Predict the structure.
Amino acid sequence: MAHAATINTQVSRDLPQYWPISTTVAYLPNPKAVPQGCWPVFLVDKLAPGEGGVHMTKHNQPYAKVIATPANDDWTIDVSHETIEMLVDPYGNKL
């Protein structure tokens, strides 16, 4: 998916200029088969109140949920934000 490649450029080229982070972003077509150690951003149709943003699995693995609308690409801004947020502050304890 082209959007994953764009976010990968952001985190591999732009983010390290400001944060000591090295990672790769990739599109995974099956949300039920996310490899261990990956921090996924799930694209969903809708969210319950307060359910968006970064969360933790029962194994303390970060993940995020973003509402994606096929009609436009506005959701890519939220994916970028949540991806960067997970990488910079996965436990939500930095200012």
About this structure: The chain has a mean pLDDT of 90. The chain is about 30% helix and 15% strand.
